[in-house]
């Protein structure tokens, strides 16, 4: 009898342990389900955040590419301007050289003009002197002819 009572008590204890064990397994499974659901939701949020970050990264990448293109175009324009400036500087040097030549030519022209004016003045005086000599010679010739004519008569 006591063995049967002990067996019954033991069976009740075993059944109670099995119920507690089943309840604990059910609670753990529910906890597992809840944790999996949270993890899934966190993962979904993380994937959504990742997609938002990827979109933002794509936008930043596009803007970076645009800025790179703009910078490249600006560098090309700058290089072209530098070539133009170099060309203009060479032109300016050539013009300065020519200006120094034009200036020297002007000075030489002024010298030659002065010399020519001096020669012209001397030539005009010489011409006046020669004209005077010619006039005197003509006058003397006419006097001589008058004298000769008067002696002939």
Explain briefly what this protein structure is:
The chain has one helix at 2-152. By secondary structure, it is an all-alpha fold. The radius of gyration is 63 Å and the shape is rod-shaped.
Per-chain topology:
Blueprint: H1 2-152
Order of helical and strand elements: H
How big a fraction of the residues is strand?
under 5%
**Rg calc:** 63 Å
Tell me the overall shape. Answer: rod-shaped
Characterize the main sheet. Answer: none
Briefly note the structural class of the backbone. mainly alpha
- Work out the helix count: 1
The span between the termini is 217 Å
Can you offer a commentary on this structure?
The protein is an all-alpha fold and 153 residues long. The chain has one helix and no strands. The chain has one helix spanning 2-152. The longest helix is centred in the middle third of the chain and has 151 residues, at 2-152. The model has no long low-confidence stretch (mean pLDDT 93).
Overview features:
rod-shaped; mainly alpha; 153 residues; 1 helix
């Amino acid at each position: 009898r006591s063995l049967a009572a002990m067996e019954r008590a033991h069976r009740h204890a075993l059944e109670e342990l099995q119920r507690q064990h089943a309840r604990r397994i059910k609670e753990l499974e529910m906890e597992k389900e809840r944790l999996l659901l949270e993890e899934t939701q966190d993962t979904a949020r993380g994937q959504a955040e990742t997609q938002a970050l990827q979109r933002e990264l794509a936008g930043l990448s596009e803007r970076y590419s645009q800025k790179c293109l703009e910078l490249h175009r600006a560098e090309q324009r700058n290089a072209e301007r530098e070539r133009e400036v170099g060309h203009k500087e060479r032109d300016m040097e050539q013009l300065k050289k020519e200006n120094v030549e034009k200036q020297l030519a002007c000075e030489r022209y002024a010298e030659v003009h002065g010399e020519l004016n001096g020669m012209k003045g001397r030539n005009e005086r010489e011409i006046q002197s020669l004209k005077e000599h010619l006039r005197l010679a003509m006058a003397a010739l006419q006097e001589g002819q008058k004298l000769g004519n008067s002696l002939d008569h």
